[in-house]
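Researcher: Structure for this, please.
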Amino acid sequence: MSYAASPGLQEAVFALLSGALAGEGVPVLDAAPPAGVDTFVLLGPEEVRDASDASGAGAEHRLQVSVIGGASGFAAAKRIAALVSDTLAGAEPALSRGRVVGIAFERARALRRDGGTLRRIDLMFRARVEL
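Model: Predicted structure, token format:
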């Protein structure tokens, strides 16, 4: 088991989502957004487990990608979340180290935050990587 593919996987997910969301005006970030950004996609926590088998070393990455938006309702955030899901599910992006076997959608959770002023949709994905 190794965490070695994690930086490349994050770069690949960032590139995929940035490309898919470019026409939407929705930035993809891995830190707090600059002031004035209403809706954004946040690359979040990751959990990695050994997925090595007889064929070689591997890891299973469980990734959280969040869509966070203003209080205009869930419809806009859900549309962006659907685009995120469509972009990542089944993707096999090239990595700087290792190879993505596939990315699968696991679950999503939609929440109101900050007294109802924010909408947050957390999407969980499972990525299988061979090293």
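Researcher: Any notable elements?
Model: The first strand starts at residue 28 and ends at 29. The two ends are 9 Å apart (CA to CA).
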